Amino acid sequence: HFLFNALSSIYFRFQETKDPKGKDLVQDLKWMIQYAIEKCQKYQFVTLEDELNFAKTYLKFHNYLPGKITLPNLGPADKTYLLMPMLLNPLMENVIKHGNLNQEKGFLTLKLEIQETNLLLTLENSYQDLPFQHISPLTKGFGIGLENLRKRLSQFYQTSSLYHLYVSKNQENQTFKTELLLPIMTQEPIE
Questions:
Q1: Cα dihedral across residues 106, 74, 94, 66: positive or negative
Q2: Torsion over CA of 150, 85, 121 and 165, rounded to 10 degrees?
Q3: Which of 60, 100, 147, 174 has its CA 20 to 30 A from that of 16?
Q4: What pLDDT was estimated at residue 180?
Q5: What is the pTM of this model?
């Protein structure tokens, strides 16, 4: 509660100074924190639509241009798919940390595909391969986000035969590709 009130105070200060970027930044941060605390703590599942909205807000918060990002448009049936909360977040964090969206050729593409009774999420993004001495300690990763995601998936689905998480790196094209195959769960039966 304290944090939300503090963010509201900052928001109103930006409003007084007529700084729309600062105001939007605080509003987005407040929404993401609310989503993470309220929705993700209360519910075992969230909709695919909610997760994509979080991903869009997260990328906007980090100031990435819409032209470099391709996210799927959801049809009515897609909006009923249920996922574990914060499923896409570690993948988006990896794009921010290791990708090069701020470069001219940088890109991020997220695709959805139905494969029988499964949902395949494919995330592909560009990266810039830097020599080891040019990697800052802040961008050099240890795979903790993906490892935590694997653990959460394992706890959630109880068996690795129900899900598949595959990450590959194509050095020739300088792209990362993450594929996540999950059983389809819906709020309503798919017709």
A1: positive
A2: 10
A3: 60
A4: 92
A5: 0.78
